[in-house]
Design a protein that fits this description.
CATH class of the largest domain: Alpha Beta
Distance between the termini: 32 Å
Strand content: 5-15%
GO molecular function, one term: hydrolase activity
InterPro entries: Beta-PGM-like (IPR051600), HAD-like_sf (IPR036412), HAD-SF_hydro_IA (IPR006439), HAD_2 (IPR041492), HAD_sf (IPR023214), PGP-like_dom2 (IPR023198)
Organism: Theobroma cacao (Cacao)
Shape: elongated
Oligomer: single chain
Number of strands: 6
Protein name: Haloacid dehalogenase-like hydrolase (HAD) superfamily protein
Structural class: alpha/beta
Cofactor: Mg(2+)
Length: about 250
């Protein structure tokens, strides 16, 4: 299948997915507002080692080089001449992030309204993330979603992480669902590109990343959070068209 065909398919609207079989979620920035904690950890630790001549990284640098990317890719960007050093730095950074997140990890507004909607319709669900396993497990557990997800797919368990489609394709395979009856929730350019490349409509969350950058990745539409009327109008129309397999049965 060509990229062009994938792009056309991804523009399928949410109601066109009826009967809906599954919803796939990214973790960082999609389930919870964790990007400020990542940014803080990177800024403090990079400044400590004199990165960028000791000038703290700004939001623009974080979005362009870090947000949504797999740690291996981040290491290559930040430490191109010393990847092992980059890998060790990122291990330490993730430990700092987990300490910060254990104290404060707010869910995205309306998250539990959407998870309830999904549970009531008996849909399958997966978390699909570029985050390290310890981070993903800690976030999902802290948000009380350990029993909500059928499976957690890690970018590191796939041949290629996001922005490639592999993690989302693996989620479809494990859940035994069709891309034609599944949509994705994502907050980063990297993640939206992965969902689109896997041939699914992507609801983009403009949690932290600039809307113009997210739109370049071709989401079906953008929402501010899970209480956005745009999302619920689409889900209501989906229900009218046949909803989920459970409601259609």
């Amino acid at each position: 299948m060509t990229t062009g065909e994938n792009s056309v398919q991804s523009k399928k609207s949410i109601p066109d997915l009826a009967p809906l079989e599954a919803v796939l979620f990214d973790v960082d920035g999609t389930l919870c507002d964790s990007d400020p904690l990542h940014h803080y950890a990177f800024r403090e630790m990079l400044q400590e080692i004199g990165f960028n001549n000791g000038v703290p990284i700004d939001e623009e640098f974080f979005v362009e080089n870090i947000a949504g990317k797999h740690n291996h890719d981040i290491a290559m960007r930040l430490f191109p001449d010393d990847i092992p050093r980059g890998a060790k730095f990122l291990e330490d950074k993730e430990a700092m992030f987990r300490r910060l997140a254990s104290e404060n990890l707010p869910p995205i507004k309306g998250l539990y309204k959407l998870t309830k909607w999904i549970e009531e319709r008996g849909l399958k669900r997966a978390a699909v993330t570029n985050a390290p396993k310890q981070n993903a497990e800690m976030i999902i557990s802290k948000l009380g979603l350990k029993d909500f997800f059928d499976v957690v797919i890690l970018g590191s368990d796939c041949e290629r992480a996001k922005p490639y489609p592999d993690p989302y394709l693996k989620a479809l395979e494990v859940l035994k669902v069709s891309k034609d009856h599944t949509f994705v929730c994502e907050d980063s350019v990297s993640g939206i590109k992965a969902g689109v490349a896997a041939g699914m409509p992507v609801v983009g969350l403009a949690t932290r990343n600039p809307e113009n950058l997210l739109m370049e990745a071709d989401p079906t539409f953008l929402v501010k959070d899970y209480e956005d009327p745009k999302l619920w109008a689409a889900l209501e129309e989906l229900d009218k068209k046949g909803g989920s397999l459970k409601t259609a049965a």
